[in-house]
Amino acid sequence: MKTINKLFKGIFFCTLVSVSVSSCDLEVEPPANIAAETYWTSEKDAWYNLNSIYSAAIPGIGIYGDAYSDDVYCQYAHESNAKIFQQDGFSPLYDEGWNFETIRKENLFLQKVGNCEMDESLRERFKAEVRAMRAWTYLGMTMTFGKVPLITEVLDYNSPNIPRDEVSVIRDFIMKELTEAAAILPEKYAGGYPNEKGRITKYACLSLKARAALYFGDYALAESTAKEVMDKGGFSLFKISSLSDAQKKEAEEMSLYIDFAEKGIDKDEFVKGMFNYEALWHTENANPDNPEYIMTRQYAASSWDYQDMTRYTSMRPNQLGGWSSVTPTQNLVDAYWGVDGHSVPQLPTPEERAKAYNQIKADLDAYQKPEGEAKFIAFCQEKIKNGTLKDYKYIQEFRNRDSRMYVSILMPFKSWYDSNYGEKFVYEWIKNGNNESKTGFNFRKMLSLENDANGDGQATGDYPCIRYAEILLIYAEAHTQTTGYDAATEAALNQLRDRCGMPDVPSGLSKEEGLKLIQNERRIELAGEGFRGDDMTRYSDDYWKEHMNNVPIMTPDGDTELTMKWSSRMRLKPIPQTAIDLNPLLAGDQNPGY
Predict the structure, then answer these.
(1) Average confidence (pLDDT) over 192-213
(2) Which pLDDT value is given to residue 378?
(3) What is the pTM of this model?
(4) Which of 507, 559, 508, 197 is nearest to 350 (CA)?
(5) Is the separation of the CB atoms in 129 and 47 below 8 Å?
(6) How many helices (H) and strands (E) does the chain have?
(7) How many other CB atoms are there within 10 angstroms of residue 312's CB atom?
(8) What DSSP state is assigned to residue 171?
(9) How far out from the chain centre does Cα 66 lie?
């Protein structure tokens, strides 16, 4: 197999065991307790190392990935280079993940596990888990950089330089590994050592295979693989059984936003659909037993993890103790369907929106608050109670929209009673405030309802990095590509619509019309989950130009925070100069445009 180049000399040796792990069920041994000369001999040695690979390889929340698109804005340069990307400003000075440390850990496991005294069938299962995770790692690498070196051995420190492998080689490897691993892995785990729930299963592996096939344009394989998961995996979309008191209170106010009778919308189904969609991420439902969770990144309250902190701090608004680091753009808000589920209402121009926002803001500023009450909360509660909030032109653009919008986006003047602030929380945008959104919006989707008891941005709720909703979307798109937009496509999409209380998708669309609808359905259903950038990469130049070329990211009061730019080179990220300096073979093989 290939030998390592000097690029990898920054990775001296893979640590025997990581000091943290991504599961509340999987454990590690402190490295200080391990003697190197007696390691890699027992089943427990293999188990500890396997658990550390889960920590390194299983992705958590993908919100920062969506900042490399038109949907999300990351205001802090120390957290992401996304603002530079959105303006087509990348160069080889930026490193977007050219790192092979996790691959080296995976290769080390596969090389050393044969030395461990253990049951042979368990050894083969452990190896299949690692092979699947290595394929997942390479999927992320090739989607980011295109060609990358394919390395499947633990290579010597002084091995010669090697070039990148062609994209076709990497793709064939990914599909082969996922196919073979899926044939070995169990359909589910019973729990307890060494069969902890949350390990990668056959169906998680097949789901990755379906995702990769869709990304690679192999629609027949994506369709058949997704269908196997649908037919045999036993998964379903998460639904709640009843509303909490806080949800009931918000449900009462939804008549300010939806003309239920006029639009022919069943209010009970609509509001329950809202909370079906929202609650699938809540801590009490965030575990491998959730019927929608195909694969999760698991968390333990005793183990600090920045990816976990993202949901509990970085995404939260300042009013809820957060930083508003990554926030939805007006561009994303504009994409949500009207309440009919297939068209977007007439939206105001930026000038009209600014005028409307400034009018409600002027009324707020002039409002005489009751003694002892917070001005903004009192203003909103009064307008909500007397039903006049909906009369403001600024609120009009948020009326009669997709149910998922109301539980995905915190919009100015909209209440949210399910958080730990209860009735004392209505979302307020404070322009230029400390840790305030730069877009006027914050995410509500995926947020915890409260922080952990210590206020450290920690919690035990797992994150679904593969959920069944994605499989339905993969099947719908792949089937439309291979066969056309027909009853099978509609049936898959209507499962999503039924869950969120929205009308069925339209029938009788052409293939092109159906694909366009599915593009937007993916954008809405998967908003903030890290899929938008990869989707943009596989969409046409015309799509990119429409959504990112000279397109502003604006605030509600009409200011332009950033104007996005696009060129075709942005489909791939540059090989970083640090890697080129270490491996001259890469100098003549930079990605186009860099």
Answers:
(1) 98
(2) 96
(3) 0.93
(4) 559
(5) no
(6) 23, 8
(7) 23
(8) H
(9) 7
> What are the CA-CA distances from residue 467 to residues 203, 236, 286, 477 (Å)?
11, 9, 11, 16
Q: What is the pLDDT of residue 4?
A: 31
Q: Which residues of 46-65 are buried (b: 16+ CB within 10 A; e: fewer)?
A: bbbbbbbbbbbbbbbbbbbb
Q: Which residues contact 211 (CB under 8 A, 6 or more apart)?
A: 139, 222, 466, 470, 474
CA distances from 566 to 77, 94, 530, 531, 546 (A): 20, 17, 19, 18, 10
Three-state helix/strand/coil letters over 233-295: CCCCCCCCCCCCHHHHHHHHHHHHCCCHHHHCCCHHHHHHHHHHHHHCCCHHHCCCCCCCEEE
Dihedral over Cα of 51, 56, 58, 62: its sign: positive
Residue predicted with more confidence, 283 or 560: 560
CA distance 177 to 132: 6
If pLDDT is split at 50, 70 and 90, which confidence band does 18 have?
Answer: very low
Q: Closest Cα to residue 550, out of 70, 214, 5, 95? A: 70
In the three-class reduction of DSSP (H, G, I as helix; E, B as strand; rest coil), residue 401 is classed as strand
Only one residue has tokens 């990119």, namely 544
Q: Is the pLDDT of residue 407 over 60?
A: yes
CA distance 76 to 63: 14
Q: What confidence tens digit (pLDDT) does each residue in 251-301 have?
A: 999 999 999 999 999 999 999 999 999 999 998 999 999 999 999 999 876
Mean pLDDT, range 498-526, rounded to an integer: 98
Which sign, positive or negative, has the C-alpha torsion 477, 479, 480, 485? negative
Q: How far apart are CA 133 and CA 104, in angstroms?
A: 12
**Residue 370 is which amino acid?**
P
DSSP 159: P
Q: What angle, 0 to 180 degrees and rounded to 10, lies between the N-to-C axes of helices 101-112 and 43-57? A: 160
User: Mind spelling out the 3-state secondary structure of 514-580?
Assistant: HHHHHHHHHHHHCCCCCCHHHHHHHCCHHHHHHHHCCEEEECCCCCEEEEECCCHHHHCCCCCHHHH
Nearest to 421 by CA among 361, 367, 376: 376
Within 10 angstroms of residue 334's Cβ, the number of other Cβ atoms is: 12
User: At 148, phi and psi to the nearest 5?
Assistant: -145, 160
